[in-house]
Specification:
The chain is built from seven helices and five strands. By secondary structure, it is of the alpha/beta class. The protein has one domain: P-loop containing nucleotide triphosphate hydrolases (Rossmann fold, 3-Layer(aba) Sandwich), CATH 3.40.50. The protein has a five-stranded parallel β-sheet with strand order 2-3-1-4-5, with helices on both faces. Helix 1 packs across helix 7 (153-165), helix 2 crosses helix 3 and helix 3 (51-65) runs parallel beside helix 4. The radius of gyration is 15 Å and the shape is globular.
Amino acid sequence: MLVIFSGLPGVGKTALARELARQVGAVHLRIDAIEQAIRQSGNTRDPLDDIGYRVAYAVAEDNLRIGRTVIADSVNPLRVTRDAWLEVANRAHAGAIEIEVRCSDLAEHRRRVETRVADIPGLALPGWAEVAAREYDAWSREHLVIESAGRTIEQNVGVIRGALSGRR
């Protein structure tokens, strides 16, 4: 199963993805970590465009083919990236679920963005102005929406696990 997370920076995707991966023993692929490793290699320049996503697609497909559950953790802002994740699952003959994490409380979302600390050495986190101006395509197909404002990680992981159990 490929669990595809999406959502703006600061909504809580990584916290949910990590806890879900811990609970179900899944592979956690975090685009931020992949992209920072690429930057630190010194063999590329910014912007990275889709390099990190392409690496993640390949690693995800390899793991899906050997029966692992894979959790893809990224902003995943464009329809083209969302479609590419589904193509990975299709090539690997695996199921997929798309999850959009939102924080509908704008003040809370802004607070999270402005107070978080990078847990990846050297990663420059976006500020609120960058997050608010980020290109993010509206969804045009069915997907699971998780609201992070006013809900705990445990509550939301429970909702996700319930959705996963219905798809296996």
